[in-house]
Write a structure and sequence with these properties.
2 strands, 12 helices, mainly alpha, globular, 70% helix
Length: 291
């Protein structure tokens, strides 16, 4: 066995899986609180741009990460205001934000860099461990923290209760609106971190390339559990890595090979229809005093 190739494959796969994993964790937080967030794709699209701008402007990759996190929370806040406060259908809001993100990111890029579809090269990059973006390895710690927060803390219990039975949570004095806002804001922040594991040296239109939607599939495949969602993200990420590494070696048209990760996501979702149980109030608006 060529161990150098194996090490490359494992490291590359982890790096490709990381943005999906962070976004999937964000989806878990949001949906555990009862808010469906299909805007993960759009949030990552915008935060990937502000990450590059922040790093170039403040001469630091970590400053760029902070800007991306703040931007992600702002985009999450927009989704929370529309869904939690104004009770708009969560899917409609998510679709609207995804569409808005396309134009908004182009507008920002034009104002920041003088071009709509491509930024300047960012020389301020994150440290690499074993040739891999350090944030990819940090995902391991983040998922452990996420599991602990959701399963072992009062905050996690309250957030999950708002997704399962907000009436009971409300009766016990839990501020359902506040908890749902918190879940969506955390979701946006994690999308900001996820965008930092993309190609942080440059932003281009379409850089996210559907990873936010695959993250949604990972949330469902992982049964709304942070560990399960990240493991599912690794499955999709390594499927994409397989495609990249072996695309030129498989004697079929490359377009079919490129479809592999997305076909896998569709097959997985089709196989889980009716088997996975989402939080009972996931995607449902709640009015105080509602039966």
């Amino acid at each position: 066995m060529d161990f150098s190739f194996l090490a490359y494959f494992l490291g590359r796969g982890l790096e490709i899986s990381a943005p999906i994993g962070y976004a999937a964790l964000g989806g878990v937080y949001s949906e555990r609180g009862g808010v469906v967030n299909i805007a993960l794709e759009g949030i990552m699209q915008v935060t990937a741009l502000t990450l590059v701008w922040g790093a170039i402007t403040f001469h630091s990759a970590w400053a760029g990460l902070l800007v991306a996190i703040i931007t992600g929370m702002f985009m999450g806040l927009l989704h929370a205001v529309v869904t939690v406060t104004f009770k708009v259908d969560h899917v409609v809001s998510g679709v609207a934000i995804n569409v808005f993100a396309i134009g908004f990111s182009r507008f920002l890029c034009q104002n920041f860099f003088g071009a709509e579809t491509q930024s300047k090269i960012n020389p301020y990059l994150f440290p690499k461990w074993l040739g891999v973006n350090c944030l990819a390895f940090i995902l391991v710690g983040v998922v452990i923290v996420a599991w602990f927060v959701l399963k072992k803390t009062v905050f996690g219990l309250r957030l999950r209760s708002c997704g399962e039975n907000p009436q009971a949570a409300d009766t016990l004095g839990v501020n359902v609106t506040l908890m749902r806002y918190a879940g969506v804001l955390i979701s946006g922040a994690l999308c900001g971190i996820g965008s930092a594991t993309l190609f942080a040296d440059e932003w281009t239109q379409g850089i996210v390339a559907g990873r936010g939607f695959i993250a949604l599939a990972a949330v469902i495949f992982g049964r709304w559990n942070p560990v399960g969602a990240v493991l599912a993200s690794l499955l999709f990420g390594y499927a994409d890595t397989f495609r990249i590494v072996f695309e030129s070696k498989i004697p079929i048209p490359p377009q079919f090979v490129q479809m592999f990760p997305y076909v896998l996501a569709v097959v997985v979702l089709a196989g889980l229809v009716g088997r996975s149980r989402a939080p009972a109030w996931d995607g449902r608006n709640y009015e105080k005093g509602e039966d």
